[in-house]
Specification:
single chain, 742 residues, mainly alpha, 3-stranded antiparallel beta sheet, 22 helices, cytoplasm, endosome
Length: 742
């Protein structure tokens, strides 16, 4: 993209320290650190010195020199006290990660990997029972949030550096993967109960980011297709990006203005790309647009990692202030054993994560949710949103009648206006025709009247009103169409609930179909059972490793026997490892059974999906009709007001038109009379024979003779004048005489 809009990031609060019988000056400097990188350095030094102290003096839980350590729990605000120096270390480590998250959320966009490293070390090396804000579930959530935000920072830099489109797409896809893991943790029931209100805010932001960065990934896949001149693929990727961005916009409701600006900017970019690509393909390239699921999915590229924490690194901790207190041999041996335990945990977790990744990808591809795999219950009742609309209409029984009456009144006023404007137009056209006849008769343009007659102004205003009427006519037609569209639905919503329920589609499943559904749900339950057992075994292994302290044994063991002691101690994990291996091995069979069940479910799924789509469409249509009622009433009233005003203006204009046309007609008569006066007197002619009277029943009659006589008396120049334009008494001749003149 031409620029890189930024999304806000989540940062964590620091824990507050309470009682700890340690040097007051040291304690103060460690718990009241500045919110900057100097503060991070101070926390690391303090953590290291605590580690050195704990390795020499028995200050752990249940040991002789243990003293109370008090910290405030983040979410509840309660103080939690343990007589264990490792609790002090765990809280300091938590604050180190929280402070890095705070710094990472700032404009410099750094430090997220450090935060992830601190929380990872805390999760793997300390008990999770100290306080709820340091439970395994919360720490896993924090780690995935930090890794996601670190990958997001890398994505911003990659786009600013104009890296290759495919690489940017993979980086963005990995952001989506990290946030999906964070979202799963946020949806965990334990997490929901612990986080409270903040869980909803975080979940909403994370879900919005999932769709947003999925849109960014498909945007860059579309750009890669463009570079490869795969114009059909380009269209479907840009369309998918647009769809995902629209989902992100829906989820962004309530987010700050900076988020809205970023979404609007991205919409401009993706919308422009899609419109251009579709137009080019429709009119130039004519490539077939493939379905999105036929294209290779974008595999994320994890380019960030949790930076490891080494509490005994002298470059970080500084000199060991307890170096002369006790020998380090036992501590060194314990550290070696801790590394063996960590290695065992890493090996097991690598297998678990590999299987989990396969399982997650498989389930994502299946798109099977155990909770909604069959949604037959929803067809047994009217949805609450429709019940609300029915209830609202039940107390307003005249809704449909009022709407129809309002539209009828509007139609009446519309017709009146149209009739007035038509009459004005006819008057003007007739006047123009008469003026044209006069011009042809005189052989020149007749002189204008001495004073303006107002016909030009009338014509101008008539054109303006006709234009307004024509525009309003389209709106009026659309309004009537909308009314006809919603009228039936409003009648349905205002009727008995049984009719509403009958109007909603319902699925019809055979017994075989129901059996297929039950089998699929049973296997999905097996998948969940396998997941839960795996998580439980993993938790047991972690807790067992955390509690495994052989320091006492190491003090009495010769250095040469250390390796053997380690091997014997590590055997205690064999049984758990066997259970985990069995669980992991069962996954292949479970997924095979799920694949077979899903094949049989395909036809049922399609039928259910079609019915659900029709059901949702029907509900949405009925709701839309209800919501359109007030708008229709408002617009019909506005239409009535508009046409009432226009009717008054048209009526006044009609009166003016009539008066102007009458004045114009009088002016033409005056011109004709003047023309007649200008003609020379008739030349003498021979006496005419007396008129022979004809019977009245003969053709023409006396009126026709009179017309012939008058015509013979007219000058030759005026004999072609249309009778209706003759001046004075000639115009009053009987119709038969006028016919003879014509």
């Amino acid at each position: 993209m031409e620029a890189v809009p930024r999304m806000p990031m989540i940062w964590l609060d620091l824990k507050e320290a309470g009682e700890f019988a340690f040097n007051a000056a040291v304690k103060k400097s460690a718990v009241s650190v500045p919110r900057d990188f100097e503060g991070c350095s101070t926390l690391r030094k303090y953590l290291g010195q605590l580690h050195f102290l704990q390795s020499r003096i028995p200050m752990g839980s249940g040991q002789d020199a243990a003293v109370p350590v008090t910290w405030t729990e983040i979410f509840s605000g309660k103080t939690v006290t343990h007589e264990d120096i490792k609790y002090e270390q765990a809280c300091v480590l938590y604050n180190l990660g929280a402070l890095h998250s705070m710094l990472g959320a700032m404009d410099k966009r750094v430090s997220e990997e450090c935060a992830a490293g601190a929380f990872t070390y805390l999760r793997e090396h300390f008990p999770h029972s100290y306080s709820v804000d340091m439970s395994h579930q919360i720490l896993s959530l924090n780690i995935n949030l930090m890794l996601g935000q670190a990958q997001e920072c890398l994505l911003e830099k990659s786009m600013l550096d104009n890296r290759k489109s495919f690489l940017v797409a993979r980086i963005s896809a990995q952001v989506v993967d990290y946030y999906k893991e964070a979202c799963r943790a946020l949806e965990n029931s334990e997490t929901v109960s612990l986080l409270g209100k903040i869980q909803k805010d975080w979940k909403k932001l994370v879900q919005m980011k999932i769709y947003y960065f999925a849109a960014v990934a498909h945007l860059h896949m579309g750009k890669q297709a463009e570079e490869q001149q795969k114009f059909g693929e380009r269209v479907i990727y840009f369309q998918s990006a647009l769809d995902k961005l629209n989902e992100a916009i829906k989820l962004a409701k309530g987010q700050p203005e900076t988020v809205q600006e970023a979404l609007r900017f991205t919409m401009d970019v993706i919308g422009g790309k899609y419109n251009s690509a579709k137009k080019d393909n429709d009119f130039i390239y004519h490539e077939a647009v493939p379905a999105l699921d036929t294209l290779q999915s974008v595999k994320g590229a994890p380019l960030v990692k949790a930076l490891p924490v080494n509490p005994t690194d002298p470059a970080v901790t500084g000199p060991d202030i307890f170096a002369k207190l006790v020998p380090m041999a036992a501590h060194e041996a314990s550290s070696l054993y801790s590394e063996e335990k960590a290695k065992l945990l890493r090996d097991v977790m690598a297998k678990i994560e590999a299987k989990n990744e396969v399982l997650d990808q498989f389930m994502d591809s299946m798109q099977l949710d155990p909770e909604t795999v069959d949604n037959l219950d929803m067809y047994n009742h009217i949805p609450s949103v429709l019940m609300e609309k029915c209830a609202a209409l039940s107390v307003r029984p005249d809704t449909v009648r009022n709407l129809v009456q309002s539209m009828q009144v509007l139609s009446g006023v519309f017709t009146d206006v149209e009739a007035s404007l038509k009459e004005i137009r006819d008057l003007l056209e007739e006047d123009e025709a008469q003026e044209q006849k006069l011009q042809e008769l005189l052989g020149r343009v007749p002189p204008a009247p001495e004073s303006p007659l107002g016909l030009a102004e009338v014509s101008k205003e008539c054109s303006k009103y006709l234009e307004l009427h024509e525009k309003a006519s389209f709106t009026n037609t659309e309004l009537h169409r909308a009314m006809n569209l919603h009228l039936g639905n409003l009648r349905l919503l205002g009727g008995p609930l049984e009719q509403v329920r009958a109007a909603l589609p319902t699925p019809s499943l055979s017994e075989d179909d129901k059996q297929v559904l039950q089998n699929l749900k049973r296997i999905l339950a097996k998948v969940q059972e396998m997941r839960d057992q795996r998580m439980s075994l993993e938790q047991q292994l972690r807790e067992m490793i955390q509690k495994d302290d052989i320091t006492t044994s190491l003090v009495t063991t010769d250095r040469s026997e250390m390796k053997k002691l380690f091997e014997e101690q590590l055997k205690k994990y064999d049984q758990l490892k066997v259970y985990l291996e069995q669980n992991l091995a069962a996954q292949e069979n479970v997924l095979k059974a799920l694949t077979d069940a899903n094949v049989k479910y395909a036809a049922v799924r399609k039928a259910l999906a079609e019915v659900e789509h029709k059901w949702n469409t029907t509900v949405q249509t009925l709701v839309a009709s209800y919501e359109a009622y007030e708008d229709l009433m408002k617009k019909s009233q506005e239409g009535k007001d508009f046409y009432t005003d226009l009717e008054g203006k048209a009526a006044k204009l009609l009166e003016r038109a009539r008066a102007a046309c009458q004045a114009s007609e009088a002016h033409r008569q005056q011109l004709l009379e003047r023309e007649l006066k200008k003609q020379p007197p008739p030349r003498p002619t021979a006496p005419k024979p007396p008129l022979q009277k004809k019977p009245l029943d003969e053709a023409g009659g006396p009126e026709a003779e009179l017309g012939s006589l008058v015509l013979s008396e007219l000058p030759e120049e005026l004999r072609s004048i249309p009778p209706e334009l003759l001046p004075g008494p000639l115009a009053q001749l009987p119709p038969q005489a006028l016919a003879a003149l014509a």
